[in-house]
Amino acid sequence: MAVAPPEVLSEALAALVAALPDAVVVTDPARTEKYRRDRSQDPDAGTPLAVVRAEDAGQVQTAVRWAAEHRVPVVPRGAGTGLSGGASALDGGIVLSLERMTAVEVDTDCQVAVVEPGALNQAVKAAAAAEGLWYPPDPASYEICSIGGNIATNAGGLCCVKYGVTTDYVLGLDVVLADGTLVTLGGPRIKDVAGLPLLKLFVGSEGTLGIVTRAILRLEPAQVVGATMVAAFPTMTSAAQAVVAIRGRLRPSMLELMDQPSIRAVESFRPMGLDTDAGALLVAQSDAPGTACAAEVDAMRVACEAAGASDVFVTDDAEEGELFVRARRTVVPAVEPLGELMLEDVGVPVPRLPELVDAVAGIAARHDLLIPVVAHAGDGNTHPLIIVPRGDDDARLRALAAFDEIMDAAIALGGTITGEHGVGRTKKQALPAQLGDDVMALTRRVKDALDPSGILNPGAIL
């Protein structure tokens, strides 16, 4: 994409500053620095010309129209918790931050939440809960991630084995297109098949097709968790085999897996009394009604024991159960002190989960790396966390090779390079191997049709 010369952009930027309210456009390098990277800490992130901290859809349109006129790259950004470099700034571009757009309104009659993209997932959950409702998608970072980012990556989470991912709850979107046009797709309707399904095209598109300025999210009646089961296993393979057995018969509301390095990292970071001798822990929950809950948990217990579980613990105390869920959510911050992280997000069909965890263990051994693994096991979605000792250049090279090999292993098992974090910039080199030439060409045609100048998040996905 051809970009205007710096001296031309300098003059043009003054026009953008004048067109927007005071303090919306930030150009001071000291203040724009924090907008250069998301949580993936992409080492190749650029330096933006400016950060536009939009307060409403009209300001987003103004910024995008300016960018289209001057052929300036636009990188949309929410809370900056992304893990695939999807919000990495580009040299000479603008970062369009949606962090100030945080409104949340719950419509109890339609059972929907009308949400701006900067609202945190936790805020939507809280607003829904105040009305006796529930917003199910729950990334492990739900307390700090934004709805806009969740929509951009089609985020999942811990309860998605039963309740689905973000796209299953998006009923409507307002989207600013690459020329600044604002379109409204869908609405507060449970069923709506009028026209092409354009709404879903934007969910998971990582800001490459348009910028979401409002979302209508379907809500559910409040969830009541009946019981939590925690099973300890001698190995990750045996735990994964238990997952396969459980999912062959049941769909619990949660089925999460932690390996021994993850358990030990959490216990060191925030002691919770976890069994650090266990090779793996499986954390499962059931919200089945009445006596069906006890039957579901008992069936899971039997499956775990048959797979070789050394201990199975069951509680119907909600607070006690939440402690184990909190341990699972704590894994990433717990391993961060161990070194720089390269976070994977590969998934396979559930029956092939044991093969995937074995493959990751083999890759870790071959490259002499510590790679803790946690998983939304009920979905077959794993998060190998490649740890690079700080300042160890040789380990970084081995980690880069391991990163690619893990994606290759997932593809070879009929899986995916990303289940919920998105492709971003860190995984785009592996996408053709998963999708193939024809689908890549189709993807490019869609991108070119909606963003012919290529200004929307260039370098992400493609």
What does this structure look like?
The chain has 462 residues and is an alpha+beta fold. The chain has three domains: 6-97, Uridine Diphospho-n-acetylenolpyruvylglucosamine Reductase, domain 2 (2-Layer Sandwich); 104-221, Uridine Diphospho-n-acetylenolpyruvylglucosamine Reductase, domain 3 (2-Layer Sandwich); 224-337, Alpha-Beta Plaits. The protein has 16 helices and 18 strands. The protein has helices at 6-19, 29-32, 57-70, 121-129, 147-153, 160-163, 198-202, 236-247, 260-269, 291-306, 318-329, 331-335, 353-366, 393-412, 431-435, 437-450, and strands spanning 25-26, 50-53, 74-77, 94-97, 104-107, 112-115, 133-134, 170-176, 182-186, 211-218, 220-221, 227-233, 254-259, 280-286, 311-315, 340-343, 373-376, 381-388. The strands form four sheets. It has a seven-stranded antiparallel beta sheet with strand order 15-12-14-13-17-18-16, with helices on both faces. A five-stranded antiparallel beta sheet has the order 5-6-10-8-9.
Quick gist of this model?
With 462 residues, the protein is of the alpha+beta class.
